[in-house]
């Protein structure tokens, strides 16, 4: 490194991988299956087949992963799902947790 007053340049070797978050759907007894499939297609870009598979997994197991994203994208998806559900009066819950 120069000590003559030149700009000093240091190569950063280590990079930090951003923490990823799982976006999860929770089961309930009231939200229509069709609505959940629609949410998965609209906000998580799933095919109808994949959306149906995820919805049924949540229905049977209580919880399921919709996708894994950086914090702000996960947060946006949770908000979009919660807003859409509230608009239709469904109790559907969507949460995020660190992967
Ligand atoms: N259990 C709901 C029903 O029988 C369907 C459902 C699936 C609800 C997934 C929420 O995240 C959910 N209508």
UniProtKB/TrEMBL annotation:
Pfam families: ClpS. One of its GO terms (molecular function) is peptidase activity. Coiled coil: none annotated. Residues 17-94 form the Adaptor protein ClpS core domain. The keyword Transmembrane helix does not apply. GO terms for biological process: protein catabolic process; proteolysis. Keywords: Hydrolase, Protease. InterPro entries: ClpS (IPR022935), ClpS_core (IPR003769), Ribosomal_bL12_C/ClpS-like (IPR014719). Binds to the N-terminal domain of the chaperone ClpA. Belongs to the ClpS family. Involved in the modulation of the specificity of the ClpAP-mediated ATP-dependent protein degradation. This is ATP-dependent Clp protease adapter protein ClpS. It comes from Calidithermus roseus. The lineage of its organism: Bacteria, Thermotogati, Deinococcota, Deinococci, Thermales.
